Amino acid sequence: MLLWIAIIIAVLWLLGFIGGIGGGLIHLLLVVAVVVLIFHFIRGRSRV
Fold first, then answer.
1. Nearest to 10 by CA among 21, 28, 22, 1
2. What are phi and psi of 38, to 5 degrees?
3. pLDDT category, 47, cuts 50, 70, 90?
């Protein structure tokens, strides 16, 4: 589920970046997406 959230946030970031809408919010979405992805991979490895 975290992976889907990160993908959705990254897509929204990309759409905002291309459209030039959002200003600083665009970069905040990218940071959130990266943090969620890192958390997903760390959490996934600890389960195995």
1. 28
2. -60, -45
3. low
pLDDT tens, residue by residue, 17-46? 777 766 777 777 778 888 888 888 888 765
Which letter does DSSP use for residue 20 in this model?
A: T
Report the distance separating Cα 29 and Cα 33, nearest Å. 6
R_g of the chain computed on alpha carbons:
12
- How long, in residues, is the chain? 48
CA dist., res. 31 & res. 43, Å (int): 18
Count up the domains in the chain and report the number.
1
Q: What are the C-alpha distances in Å from 17 to residues 20, 28, 35, 39, 47? A: 5, 12, 19, 24, 35
